[in-house]
């Protein structure tokens, strides 16, 4: 599994780190990288992909993933592997996860989950999603 995140002040990084820990506890090999250091070829070679960003916008409207996140998604060439999008936010993530999912689907991902968190805590559904990935 490859987990890629963009974090400005550490919240999304903390969420991504917890996700990696949970994935490893569930028996998945996991490579965690900030988007600035992630290699699109390496990420595309993973059997499962998770991409996350902090929410950028006008707090109640026009929310989007960061430019670095969307540019990274644009460099991916995926082959139908299960993919999750995630974000941290303060007031509302709006439609950003849907936009990330659409961009990933256009790059060949099979997006099967979206996780949002007001803070670094990983939502409980993440464990269910991990369990749904057999042997990936
Ligand atoms: C310039 C800027 C714009 C933001 N816009 C939004 C927004 O539109 N909606 C929202 O819920 N949070 C917004 N936030 C809050 C962050 O998305 C939130 O605090 C996030 O968890 C920060 O993650 P990080 O610590 O990984 O950088 C904004 C923060 C900044 C700095």
What does this structure look like?
This protein is an alpha/beta fold and 136 residues long. The chain binds flavin mononucleotide. Flavin mononucleotide binds next to helix 1.
Please write out the topology.
Blueprint: E1 2-6, H1 11-25, E2 31-34, H2 40-44, E3 49-54, H3 67-74, E4 82-88, H4 96-106, E5 110-117, H5 125-132
Parallel strand pairs: 1-2, 1-3, 3-4, 4-5
Residues 7-13, 54-59, 63, 88-93 line the site of flavin mononucleotide.
- Biggest sheet, spatial arrangement of strands: 2-1-3-4-5
User: What fold name stands as the CATH topology?
Assistant: Rossmann fold
Work out the strand percent. 15-25%
Number of strands: 5
CA gyration radius, whole angstroms: 13 Å
Spans of at least 5 consecutive residues whose pLDDT stays below 50 are none
Overall number of structural domains = 1
Bound molecules: flavin mononucleotide
Molecular shape = globular
Helix content: 25-40%
Class from helix and strand fractions: alpha/beta
- Main sheet overview: 5 strands, parallel
What's the number of helices?
5
CATH architecture assignment: 3-Layer(aba) Sandwich
Mean pLDDT: 96
Q: Using the coordinates above, name the CATH class.
A: Alpha Beta
Question: Order of SSEs, N→C?
Answer: EHEHEHEHEH
